[in-house]
Structure formats: C-alpha cells, structure tokens
Amino acid sequence: MIRTIEERLAAVEAQLAIRQLASSYARAVDSRDIQLLGELFAPQTRFGEHGTGAAGARAFYGPVLARFYRSFHQVVGHVITDLGSETARGTVYCRAEHEDGDQWIVNLMVYFDRYVAIEGRWLFLGRRPRFLFVGDAREAPRSVDFNKWPGREEDFACELPQSDASWNSYWNEREAERAQVTTLP
User: Fold this and answer.
1) Were 146 and a residue from 64, 67, 133, 142 both cysteine, which residue would form a disulfide, CB within 3.0 to 4.6 Å?
2) What radius of gyration do the chain's Cα atoms show?
3) Rounded CA gap, 89 and 117, in Å?
4) Domain 5-181 is of which CATH architecture?
5) Which residues form the SnoaL-like domain (predicted)?
6) pTM for the whole thing?
C-alpha cells in the first residue's frame, strides 16, 4: 500500500498528539489539575456512577487523587496501534510513585488505551490500568501477586505479565529454564 505524503504526515501528527495526550494525563494527575484532566477525555467516556466525559472524569479523579498527597507519573514507553483517521489504541508503560502517609509506594503499570479524534483533537475514549508491581521501591517483588501497598491491596490487582497470552506461551515452552530463574509460579 503506497500512501501519500499527506497521509503519512497525518499519521505522524496523530501519533505525536496521542503521545502528548498520555504525558498530559501524567502532568494533570501529578499537578492535581482536575480541569485539564477532564478535558483529556472524550464526551462519551464513561466513569460509572460519576458520569461521562469531562465532568465524569473530574468527579471520578477528584476523590481518587485526594487519597494520597503527592504522586509522580513517569511515562516510560508508548506503543500506538490500530491508528486510523479518528481512532487508535495504545499501551502506555508507566512508573507511578505515591506518597501515602509515611509510605512511598511505587506502581509499575501499563495503561491499555483507546483514543478518538474529535474535531481534530485526540482524546481518551478509555483507559484501563493493569499492574505489574505495587509496593515499596526498596523491596524486590517476591510474591505472586506483587501487591504490597498496605491497606490498599484490594485497589490494585497485579495482573501482568502473567495475564498476557504470549507470556504464558513463552514460559510453557521453557519450563526447565523458568525453574532455573524463579521459584514463583
């Protein structure tokens, strides 16, 4: 498929805008800019009982962000897939750190995103975080669930990497090697 220079340029511009969206989310969360945070979501994005769109986002994130004093979200990798003229998907790797009382908790996570362009502006249609590790940064994850945020174990179900089909396929074919590098399931 031969694409025109205009089509290629539009794809590059879309990717840059989508990458900026993920970074803007991190900045809005960490600066507690609830107004900006709401503006990053499409009008049809659902936030359960909190509503939809910008108002739903603000109603959802306001109380969530009040649960810890400081946070730092570091976007460390972004893969954009299924890029069309008005829709796309992506995965965003993130290291998020949270001050929770006297605790300093690290979340290693991947956001699974859906994006939509509305009037030329890329917005989140949906964000689903999945966690790799939650706990004290000074401790190595040594349990199956990797969730060590005292009092918030129910809030963060650590699913990755074991929930990826490719992960299981890879290690199922290499049982002997796996046994040499870990004693965990």
Assistant:
1) 133
2) 19
3) 12
4) Roll (3.10)
5) 11-127
6) 0.83
Looking at the DSSP bridge assignments, the partners of residue 91 are 79, 112
Both tokens of residue 41? 């979501």
Percent of the chain with pLDDT over 70: 85
Range 73-92 average pLDDT: 97
Which stretches of 12-166 are assigned E, i.e. beta strand? 70-81, 87-100, 103-118, 121-136
**Residue 125 CA neighbour count, 13 Å, CB half:** 12
Mean pLDDT estimate for the chain: 88
User: Which residue in 128, 123, 81 sits closest to 109, CA to CA?
Assistant: 128
Would you state the structure tokens that stand for residue 135, as one six-digit string? 């706990």
Q: If you search the block for the tokens 């009037």, which residue do you land on?
A: 119
Amino acid symbol at 172: N
CB contact at 8 A, 129 and 91: no
Report which residue type is found at 11. Answer: A
